[in-house]
Amino acid sequence: MAALTDAMTKAIDIAREAPNGRHAELLLHDGPLRQTVIALKEGAELPEHNSPPAASIQVMHGCLRVTGQEPVLLQAGTLEALTHVRHAVEAVEDTVFLLTTVTSQHDTDSHSTPTGEMPSLSAEDQSAEYAEMDHESGGGRTNR
């Protein structure tokens, strides 16, 4: 079980110190379902990327802008389905959100591998893509 409040606090603290201003932590992995807490320091962004087959953003704290077909401003308490077009995400202020994705990948793993490492995921898996962007650019990344 993941303590969401603790994960949110940890994520924004790490994002504020990270060179790229962001942090992603995979909280739940069950077959094609992934839930990831993502924190972005004000002004930090996730560059344009593809959406997985199904995804939603629930803003827990702060405010962010999602670009794409129609740019939208999402504030704390907002739950929004992501469209199936390329989009980018930018923090208008320090923001923490829960990204829920469902991929077309059908694997038998549940939660994580015995080593605690995140399993190899398809290119369509948005939460892994965010975490990988963090890893490549020096941001914090934690897997459970």
Summarize the structure.
17% of the residues lie in helices and 40% in strands. The chain is of the alpha+beta class and 144 residues long. The strands form two sheets. It has a six-stranded mixed β-sheet with strand order 7-4-9-2-1-10. Strands 3-8-5-6 form a four-stranded antiparallel β-sheet, with no helix packed on it.
Structural features, described:
The protein is 17% helix and 40% strand. The chain is an alpha+beta fold and 144 residues long. A hairpin with a 2-residue loop joins strand 1 (22-30) and strand 2.
Radius of gyration: 14 Å
Helix-strand category: alpha+beta
Whole-number average pLDDT?
78
Order of helices and strands: HEEEEEEEEEHE
User: Uncertain segments of ≥5 residues (pLDDT<50)?
Assistant: 107-128, 132-144
Biggest beta-sheet profile: 6 strands, mixed
> How many separate helices?
2
Strand content: 35-45%
Strand tally, please?
A: 10
What percentage of residues falls in helices of 4 or more residues?
10-25%
Tell me the distance between the termini.
Answer: 10 Å
Give the strand line-up of the largest sheet: 7-4-9-2-1-10
Shape designation: globular
